[in-house]
Amino acid sequence: MTPTIKKPKAQKDQREAARSMEGNIEILNLNMKPGNTLKVKGKISADTVGFSINLGCSSRDLALHFNPRFNESVIVCNSKCSDFWQTEHRDHHLPFFRGCTVKFFIEMLSDKFRVKLPDGHEVCFPNRHGYHNINYISIVGGLKIISFKMT
């Protein structure tokens, strides 16, 4: 796996550009299949509004968009088909906060994704596309990656 850093678009404030770079990772050859689990550990930025972990075939076709939003105290999950967002699922169980270190376990099953949160709570989201192989992952926003492993 060769991670590539996704650069932010031109922005007026250089500090904002540096802050938006934090945690932005894109991997194009993940090869995740049903039965595999991603273990993602990171530190949440103290001033972020949120971050997202995206799994799919490309940035235009996402099977799972996992998006904790601190300004709304919610975890939003969604999928994207040909660059169009589908119906989102909202889970109001947000057991972590800005500035903390977190670990997520994202398990791919044949019919759904199961995300285990740091406190053991699970968020399940259907595999709407029916993908049997996920090659694309991006982690965007205020999550600085400490470790990343697929088993």
From TrEMBL:
Residues 24-151 form the Galectin domain. The keyword DNA repair does not apply. InterPro entries: ConA-like_dom_sf (IPR013320), Galectin-like (IPR044156), Galectin_CRD (IPR001079). PROSITE patterns: GALECTIN. SUPFAM superfamilies: Concanavalin A-like lectins/glucanases. It holds the Pfam family Gal-bind_lectin. The keyword Ribonucleoprotein does not apply. It comes from the Eukaryota. One of its GO terms (molecular function) is carbohydrate binding. Keywords: Lectin. This is Galectin. It comes from Lonchura striata.
